[in-house]
Amino acid sequence: MKKIPLTIDGLDVTVDEGMSVLEAALQNDIYIPHLCYCPDLTARGVCRLCIVDIGDRELVTSCRTPVERGMVVKTKTREIDKAIRPVVELLIANHHISCRGCPSSGHCELQTIMSHLRIDRRRVRRLRLPEEEKPLDTSNPCFDYDPNKCVLCGICVHTCEDIHGVSSLYYVGRGYGTRIAFYGDEARCAACMKCVERCPVGVLLPRNSPAAEAQSKE
Ligand code: SF4
Ligand code: SF4
Fold it and tell me: Which residue(s) pair with 144 in the sheet?
């Protein structure tokens, strides 16, 4: 495999040709916020949190940008912060207010992003809309869906699509009301649980798991 040298945040690295800038950074322990990226799915650049500067203040989604010889990448600039911070703040404002009791706490991508950006929780609380908790969706036979925590990254929809050719999951609603829904056809779901494993924020809870039961009692 041909090797490509480039610089990320001042660090000289060499990676395989064909890698994305995001993969090159993560492989070299340089964290770039991301929610919709999954190593074995086609990068779609939906969440737009992984933007980086590749010179002349050009901002690109790093998951969809292949590495190039001599590329100089910056992952932390004022422009990047200005672009992604409001998006993350709104995502959190539209999320459960507390991580307490969440089975994903400690291995949740949103927590990683919050700590990376040092998000001010008090500021986020002021952005919250007063709205009621939405009920768990229990229409899938093998897992429950908690719409209060979904960040609409699309990983579950695309996982099912890429593995089975037809997705059992789809987007429904618009704007703040957008959520993920299940077709409700048991024959369509192979119960492979790949979507559950890959959800970056633990929204899909395996049915009858201790975590799902604890969540439903909260
Ligand atoms: S369990 Fe498998 S088949 Fe069922 S919705 Fe999830 S990815 Fe699709
Ligand atoms: S359920 Fe999980 S994987 Fe699916 S869109 Fe919501 S956060 Fe993403």
Answer: 205
